[in-house]
Amino acid sequence: MTDSQSSVLDRTAERLAAATPVPLARKVRGLSDKGLAWLFITPTMLLLLAINIFPLIWAIYLSFTNYRANRPNEIVKNVGLSNYQRILGDQDIWIAMQATAHFVFWTIALQTLIGFTLAYLIDRKFRGHAFWTTVILVPMMLSPAVVGNFWRFLYQPQIGLFAYAVSFFTGISPTEIEMLSNVHLAPWAIIIVDTWMWTPYVMLICLAGLRSIPDYIYEAAEVDRASHWRQLWSITLPMALPFIMLAVLFRGIENFKMFDMVNLLTGGGPGSTTEVASITLKREAFEKWRTGYSSAFAIILFVAVFGLANIYVKVLNRVKNR
Amino acid sequence: MSGKTIAKRQGRWPVYLRRGILENIAIGLIGLGFLMLFQPFALVLYTFSFITMLVGTVMFIVVSKFPE
Amino acid sequence: MSAAAHSVVEPGLTSKRVAGAIVILYAVITMVPLFWIFATSFKTPPDSIAYPPKILFEPSIEGYCNLFTTRTRQTAEYIASLPPATSFCDETTRKRNMVIAGQSNFLPRFVNSLIIAFGSTFCAVFLGTLAAYGFSRFKVPLADDLLFFILSTRMMPPIAVAIPIYLMYRELGLSDTALGMILLYTAVNVSLAVWLLKGFIDEIPREYEEAAMIDGYTRMGAFFKVVLPQATTGIAATAIFCLIFAWNEYAFAALLTSGTAQTAPPFIPTIIGEGGQDWPAVAAGTTIFLVPILVFTILLRKQLLRGITFGAVRK
């Protein structure tokens, strides 16, 4: 810290000290470190208890009832585990899970492949790589809802830029490229947008993984005359693996609960080909108003996410200690 | 925690209840639960996916309290 | 030996050029949709739906006019009887046989977004700084479990959270209020704030505070004098991350707000003109909505990695 900075800090601190009323200052002075710790942490905990935990417990209670939020005056009956049994035996929800699986699998596969390749290339440190990295990162910061909504325009069969570009390169008539209304293309339409949006995320974490590998390991490999491919397979990939895992787990969690982009792009259609779990949940909870039933479904999704989150934090701590 | 206490606790703690192995089993259960949830082959596997994930998650939380 | 080391640290020129070319190609392709949003916002409605898509066109601000106004169709005689148009927007609207009827809801929704995003960011960063300091400097029992609990609240599926929150807010009268949304976004963001800020505060050496406390400052005084000024960059970066999240959020906003407290993301997709979506107006709204994020992304570029890994990866 420079002298001028520290003197500015001193003055700020003096002003703060002067601004603090005497009784309060004395009270704070009297607080032990332990008391201060709780004073600092409790507000956050209370907020999370009120906004996250209390509703969660409420949802668990509701999941055992037949409550419907649009009929608040009806008598609420305890139905035991039957909501869970119905969801876990329901063919339609099973199919929604497969739609989710298709989405999660392909987005992660594509994003990891493209993201790692980009990171590997950026790590060549060509001229201007910092600038182009920032450019690539832009889509991931944008609102998935607002940008997803605009992709609806890009996907329009005739006037949309996407259909036009595809027909320009393949010669297929642009009226036939109905990305959002064709049952075979719609699942890929959402995968493309998600990949466009989140590949930078995977790339950024992979880049950190590549940069965490010390140079001397490669130097040793050079001395041993290991080929580039061999270096990639036996040094780069294994050493970057925790980072790749981190990115894959996080994207997995995020895409498992994907709602906004899909809701605006296809709304689950055509039919139910892109009806991922969150869309089903929204339909049950906020369109059919089967609150008890949808609470049970929400708890199932929550447990799945919570399980992954546990693993995520384990990997996170491993990466942190690198 | 000092090295001494770890050694002491490890002495009392059976090897097969060490954190590392059990944690991996729990992770395996969560992963298996996901495979069962996502697979398109048998409805019965899907039906039991939730309980598998639940057991895995609870087990993970419990064993993360065990000593290394 | 030196040649080998050189080839490791400094890849060959050809490999660099090829890598650069591929990355730049990807970056350009990835920018096309964004460029298209920007371009469409300056097109007239007929230009926006022309086939083949127009890359060269005469720019017009009709999209922005339509974004901020509502219009009604009138007969040609009625329009001819009106006094001369006072603004460009008046003029273009009349050319389409319509007159401006009033303001659209975009501005109020945009203001809602600003209020909710800034309000929740302030609360989340305030609470987060305190909690992060607590976790960083004091021995908190079960600290790891509490931190995991804090993080896990962020991972919950938004729709799953929205069901009980919807019922709770209905009971408390918080449905469709800015306060309700601020509380909710604060709760979601505070987890990110705690994790990120804990990382930043961990990096400030404890010796600084200890020195200040030897000089006679209380713990609290040291927190204000030493820790806060040292953590300014971290706090600013955290605030921007929280701001971006609250600004971009859609699921809660779409399910829990419908009118007075609705934010821009659920509103923009509902902008319609005659005969379907008014794409230039949507693009104009999207552009206005995205520009702040672009600026923030550039400001944050050095901290992005930290932000997306909850402070775990510091480069």
TrEMBL record, chain A:
The keyword Transport applies. Residues 97-312 form the ABC transmembrane type-1 domain. The chain crosses the membrane at residues 36-61, 103-122, 129-147, 153-173, 185-210, 230-250, 293-313. Keywords: Membrane, Transmembrane, Transmembrane helix, Transport. Signal peptide: none annotated. InterPro entries: MalF_N (IPR035277), MetI-like (IPR000515), MetI-like_sf (IPR035906), Sugar_ABC_transporter (IPR052730). One of its GO terms (biological process) is transmembrane transport. The keyword Transmembrane helix applies. It is a multi-pass membrane protein. Its main location: membrane. GO terms for cellular component: plasma membrane. SUPFAM superfamilies: MalF N-terminal region-like, MetI-like. Belongs to the binding-protein-dependent transport system permease family. This is Carbohydrate ABC transporter membrane protein 1 (CUT1 family). It comes from Hoeflea marina. The lineage of its organism: Bacteria, Pseudomonadati, Pseudomonadota, Alphaproteobacteria, Hyphomicrobiales.
TrEMBL record, chain B:
The chain crosses the membrane at residues 21-38, 44-63. It comes from the Bacteria. It comes from Hoeflea marina. The lineage of its organism: Bacteria, Pseudomonadati, Pseudomonadota, Alphaproteobacteria, Hyphomicrobiales. Keywords: Membrane, Transmembrane, Transmembrane helix. This is Uncharacterized protein.
From TrEMBL, chain C:
The chain crosses the membrane at residues 18-39, 114-135, 147-169, 181-201, 222-247, 279-300. Its main location: membrane. One of its GO terms (biological process) is transmembrane transport. It is found in: Cell membrane. Keywords: Cell membrane, Membrane, Transmembrane, Transmembrane helix, Transport. InterPro entries: BP-dep_ABC_trans_perm, MetI-like, MetI-like_sf. It is a multi-pass membrane protein. It comes from the Bacteria. Pfam families: BPD_transp_1 (PF00528). Signal peptide: none annotated. GO terms for cellular component: plasma membrane. Residues 110-300 form the ABC transmembrane type-1 domain. Belongs to the binding-protein-dependent transport system permease family. This is Carbohydrate ABC transporter membrane protein 2 (CUT1 family). It comes from Hoeflea marina. The lineage of its organism: Bacteria, Pseudomonadati, Pseudomonadota, Alphaproteobacteria, Hyphomicrobiales.
